[in-house]
Write a structure and sequence with these properties.
It contains 12 helices and 5 strands. It is mainly alpha-helical. It folds into 3 domains: about 100 residues, RNA polymerase sigma factor, region 2, helix turn helix motif (Rna Polymerase Sigma Factor, Chain: A, Orthogonal Bundle); about 70 residues, Arc Repressor Mutant, subunit A, CATH 1.10.10; about 60 residues, PhyR, sigma-like (SL) domain (Butyryl-CoA Dehydrogenase, subunit A, domain 3, Up-down Bundle). The chain has a 3-stranded antiparallel beta sheet, with no helix packed on it. A two-stranded antiparallel sheet has the order 4-5. The longest helix is centred in the C-terminal third of the chain and has 26 residues.
């Protein structure tokens, strides 16, 4: 004899797959529970009516806090079209300011959802802040976009990079005006020193700051040569006359003008100039003789 067990409630209940978001909804409010770990309440018209009846700071802060994810969503989408130098955190902070302004001007009686009203104002606040931080005039930015568009169009038509004369003709500019515009546009690009790049002579990735070179900096050999020159000049100055040494000292070490030196020495400015010229010629001759012999 076969006995069939009566199914229990536990056996008939379907197991909920992990990671499923369970939504419970009634006529006034919708709640969302994610994996049973937390709950987020969406702002409803009832919340707005309650706030209008009792506009306390605590209620205002709670409503604003619920819309912060909306700001982050808008800022994240906008950041995709901006350079890497623009930080997402800065966009979010600026967007919150737009959110607060939208919150203060919103009228729920018009029948418009707050999200619909707030998003354009959040975007506007972010764009206004970026324009305020941008040191490049709008006309230069517009000219940069115009040149890039013309380059793309001519490259597609010609199958090669256009010549400067062709680009100038397409933009209805003279070549001089085009070069001037290119100089202005070239100053609008920003590079991050922390950006990872590939050096030309190496396949490894390094921060851009490691590839920056100071062409004006002296090498080790240059530092040694400058030290030798300085030591020799100290000796060479001793071979000048007392009047020449005084002019050199006042002009290069005290940083006086020729007129001021003349007043100190009680001679004319032209006479000071003659003494200075003679002293410099003597020093140059001694330096050439010394280092020519060393070579």
């Amino acid at each position: 004899m076969v006995t069939i067990a009566k199914p229990t409630r536990r056996n008939t209940r379907k197991a909920k797959p992990k990671g499923v978001v369970v939504v419970r909804q009634d006529s006034t409010r919708k709640s969302v529970r994610v994996n049973g770990r937390g709950r987020r309440w969406e702002v409803t018209m009832r919340d707005w009516r309650r706030y209008q009846k009792n506009p306390t700071d605590d209620m205002r802060q709670r409503l604003l806090a619920k819309y912060v994810p909306l700001v982050r969503n808008v800022a994240t989408r906008m950041a995709m079209g901006f350079p890497r130098s623009v930080e997402l955190t800065d966009l979010v902070n600026t967007g919150v300011i737009g959110l607060i302004e939208a919150f203060g001007n919103f009228d729920p009686a018009r029948g418009v959802k707050f999200e619909t009203y707030a998003v354009p104002r959040i975007r506007g606040a972010i764009l206004d802040e970026l324009r305020a931080l941008d040191w490049v005039p709008r006309s230069t930015r517009a000219r940069s976009r115009e040149i890039e568009k013309a380059l793309t169009q001519l490259e597609n038509e010609l199958g090669r990079l256009p010549e400067k004369s062709e680009l100038a003709r397409h933009l209805d500019l003279s070549e001089a005006e085009l070069y001037h515009a290119l100089d202005d546009v070239s100053c609008t690009n920003i590079l991050s020193l922390d950006e990872i790049v590939y050096p030309e002579d190496d396949n490894r990735q390094v921060p851009r700051i490691e590839t920056v070179q100071d062409n004006g900096a002296l090498s080790v050999l240059g530092i040694i040569e400058r030290g030798e020159l300085h030591t020799f000049l100290v000796t060479a100055i001793e071979h000048l006359t007392e009047q020449e040494r005084l002019v050199i000292s006042l002009y290069y070490f005290e940083e006086l003008t020729l007129k001021e030196i003349g007043e100190v020495m009680v001679i004319s400015e032209s006479r000071v100039s003659q003494i200075h010229t003679r002293a410099v010629k003597k020093l140059r001759g001694m330096v050439r003789e010394r280092f020519a012999m060393a070579g």
